[in-house]
């Protein structure tokens, strides 16, 4: 029998809004028992430090390069993850002895798939020492070494969750609307097709923060008061990203922010919510068939304007749209759960990525193990 392990997944995503912590009991294959979830938000000062880390990383050509200031931020990020793990264990009354492994994503500070370069800061060895737990980290690198895009990695977990839809003979598509959006299509034959689908919340967050100082558009209310400025939307939707047959993974900076004066606050937020929804639909043109059901995950599902628009577009094409919760999952926890699942697969030497997910030539495993 395959070994069932208890793993904690840790995700600090492209939105840089905080650390997601989730527990999973799994054999890294078909057995999945979901445990508790905790979101530990970053305060504004640390978000600024992470933005500084993106600037410091921009000139890097070596993924191990760490100018002193970037290394300081890496150590602070790692320390914050250790504190988040301790807070999680305490909050839910879980003994550290019951945990087999931590799956540590770190923070992506640079992602240039065309140059074979992806950098996540986060020191796995330090996290293992501080927590006394084994850590699997740096899970994207080996995929890129083998010619993959290094992202997305969550699809193998989506596929494991899709069983009940497959049994019902439905082609299902998970949409994760985070800082960037990505999707995983699982056909009725179990075949996976996954890729980054466009800008998610990042453009909206940047716009709303520049105009109001708020980190995001709560509920999509600001967008709800605006109208789509077609010329601005077209500028984004005409991006070469949506053309050609090879799917490319995205970096946070790949789509330029809307500039001050280009729209009112409300129209800008509305236009960017439209862009987020329409870019997912444009990307679904690369799927082998129209999904019967979409399952929407990630923070963007809480932007009511974005989701209303996406639902109208998807339903117009004959699909059904469910939130993660309506489908029986947790839309906030899913990425962190995926990092727990991937860590267990890594320990068992199972592949993390596949030709249909990152474009890698053959299935490859990944991750580096650090022990305390
Ligand atoms: N109540 C809300 N209303 C509207 N938008 C929200 C709400 N809560 C979160 N969001 C949006 O969701 C974002 C965070 O989403 P999420 O945590 O899924 O992203 P991430 O994991 O950082 O990104 P990625 O999946 O790209 O790595 C926030 O930056 C914000 O834009
Ligand atoms: C390089 C990187 O960190 N990419 C993230 C980002 O955020 C969403 C999208 O772009 C996806 O490709 C990926 O994260 C998800 C969790 C993944 O790898 O599946």
Automatic annotation (TrEMBL):
Keywords: ATP-binding, Carbohydrate metabolism, Kinase, Nucleotide-binding, Transferase. One of its GO terms (molecular function) is phosphotransferase activity, alcohol group as acceptor. GO terms for biological process: 1,6-anhydro-N-acetyl-beta-muramic acid catabolic process; amino sugar metabolic process; peptidoglycan turnover. Pathway: Cell wall biogenesis; peptidoglycan recycling; Amino-sugar metabolism; 1,6-anhydro-N-acetylmuramate degradation. ATP binds at residues 13-20. It comes from the Bacteria. Its EC number is 2.7.1.170. InterPro entries: Anhydro_N_Ac-Mur_kinase, ATPase_NBD. It holds the Pfam family AnmK. Signal peptide: none annotated. Belongs to the anhydro-N-acetylmuramic acid kinase family. Catalyzes the specific phosphorylation of 1,6-anhydro-N-acetylmuramic acid (anhMurNAc) with the simultaneous cleavage of the 1,6-anhydro ring, generating MurNAc-6-P. Is required for the utilization of anhMurNAc either imported from the medium or derived from its own cell wall murein, and thus plays a role in cell wall recycling. This is Anhydro-N-acetylmuramic acid kinase.
């Amino acid at each position: 029998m395959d070994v069932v392990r208890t793993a904690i997944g840790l995700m600090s995503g492209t939105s840089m809004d905080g650390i997601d912590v989730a527990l999973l009991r799994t054999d890294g294959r078909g057995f999945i028992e979901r445990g508790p979830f905790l979101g530990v938000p970053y305060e504004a000062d640390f978000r600024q430090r992470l933005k500084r880390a993106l600037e410091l990383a921009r000139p890097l050509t070596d993924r191990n390069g760490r100018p002193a200031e970037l290394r300081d931020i890496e150590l602070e990020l790692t320390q914050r993850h250790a504190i988040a793990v301790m807070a999680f264990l305490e909050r839910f009354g879980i003994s550290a002895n019951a945990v087999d492994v931590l799956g540590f994503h770190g923070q992506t500070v640079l992602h240039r798939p065309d140059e074979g370069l992806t950098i996540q800061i986060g020191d796995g060895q330090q996290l293992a020492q501080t927590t006394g737990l084994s850590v699997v980290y740096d899970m994207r690198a080996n995929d890129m070494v083998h010619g993959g895009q290094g992202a997305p990695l969550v699809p193998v977990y989506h596929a494991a969750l899709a069983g009940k839809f497959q049994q019902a003979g439905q082609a299902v598509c998970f949409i994760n609307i985070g800082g960037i959006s990505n999707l995983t299509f699982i056909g009725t034959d179990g075949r996976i097709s996954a890729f980054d689908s466009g800008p998610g919340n990042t453009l909206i967050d940047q716009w709303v923060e520049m105009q109001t100082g708020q980190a995001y558009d709560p509920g999509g209310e600001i967008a709800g008061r605006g109208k789509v400025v077609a010329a601005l939307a077209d500028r984004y939707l005409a991006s070469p990203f949506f053309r050609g047959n090879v799917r490319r993974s995205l970096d946070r900076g790949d789509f330029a922010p809307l500039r001050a004066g280009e729209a009112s606050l409300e129209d800008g937020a509305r236009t960017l919510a439209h862009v987020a929804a329409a870019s997912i639909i444009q990307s679904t043109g690369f799927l082998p068939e129209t999904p019967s059901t979409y399952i929407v995950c990630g923070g963007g599902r809480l932007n009511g304007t974005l989701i209303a628009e996406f639902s109208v577009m998807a339903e117009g094409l004959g699909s059904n749209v469910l939130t993660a919760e309506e489908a029986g999952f947790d839309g906030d926890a899913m990425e962190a759960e995926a990092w727990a699942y991937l860590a267990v697969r890594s320990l068992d030497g199972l592949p993390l990525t596949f030709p249909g997910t990152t474009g890698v030539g053959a299935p490859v495993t990944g991750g580096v193990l650090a022990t305390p």
